[in-house]
Amino acid sequence: MAKIRPFKGLRFNTEKAGKIEELVCPPYDVVSPAERDELVSRNRYNMINLELPVGENKYSKAGELYSSWLRDGVLKQDEKPSIYVYEEEFTVKGVTRKIKGIITRVFLEPFSKGVVLPHEETLSKAKADRFELMKATGCNFSQIYSLYSDSDGSIFAHIDGLSAGKPDICFTDKVGVTHRLWTLDDEDVLAYFERAFEGKQLFIADGHHRYETALNYRQKLIDDGFVKTDEDDANYVMMMLVDLENAGLVVFPTHRIIKGLPEFDKEAIISAVKKDFEVKKLDYKDDLEGILALHADGKAFVMCFKDAPYLVVLKNAEAVKKAIPEKCDAYRSLDVAVLHSVILEPIFKIDRENMAKQINLTYTRDIDEAVNGVKSGSYQCAFILNPTKVSEIKDVALANEKMPQKSTYFYPKIITGLVINKII
Known about the structure:
The protein has helices at residues 14-17, 33-42, 48-51, 58-71, 124-137, 154-162, 187-196, 208-223, 266-273, 288-293, 317-323, 329-332, 335-344, 352-357, 367-376, 390-398; strands spanning 4-5, 10-12, 75-77, 83-92, 95-107, 116-117, 139-140, 144-148, 169-172, 178-184, 202-206, 236-243, 250-252, 255-258, 277-281, 300-304, 309-314, 361-364, 381-385, 409-411, 421-422.
């Protein structure tokens, strides 16, 4: 099962680079061009320069910049192998929550081994981008976010006890998330965690592209003769490990937006949907999110058109089995799987290739963006979804299935730049 290892993390030398809150950044895939510019203007050493390079020869320039930061002491490597306790404190809908786990190295295993399990499909373009960056820098700049089962709470109790004191790093970012980091380098403590995870499976929550890229990069290093044994550092990837039962876990839904379909007939769509779903007309003055939450245990969506939204609830489960007979029950129970296979593909004629290329289907986590876009006529239709449950993610992964892209959005994102994993 999972094999973890402490490591000498690379960290910003704040005496040289400035305040840590000016140096960290969100993961590359949620940073807009405008936000990237703002991060760079905040501090020229901001991690976004390495995590999301831009311009011509961007990967080689990132490699050169990384080397200069090492040379100039902007980045310094810890003297002792360590595991890092990381906590995020945040507020969602007026409720304050906390997520706490450990940042460590995890031995790279192919998905077929059943040790590290994915739950979501990936895109080749994103993997190619991360691969080129890893080749140029030899680093993991951001952690893969993974979950493990800790039903008796023993591992979390250990983590919580070891981080009861003042953190090494503590700051609150501009969206109100407080980040804390503790460094653990006691050999007995490190040995405890290595033993504790020997029997664990890990479920990737966020970072599928980065994990698959790390597997490909490790293979390249093997082919090039840099990796000769299982003990080489390149056999490991940096992960943030959080227990599945953590009360602070929050998964946001990703809503679907339809645009640019050459033939779009609202009444024909509603008629077709009624074959397998109960359809009830709502009003945009209604609490759409609240109404949908009442159907969290069923397969339900809010389907939005320019003039009105409609509550759509599955009434014919056999339609799902007929649409995707090759899939397991765990997969067929997903709202997003039902939406894609029973509505978007057969009725809207948006096939999987179309979805992957985002030709007529795009995504948003913002209900207002989806609704207002439809009402203004910018979009033809939108589907508002309930969030995927953490238990569903686990069940799909254990069944060796993968959800459609953009099925989950764990909040908040793990910040990038607190710890870097130097591979070679």
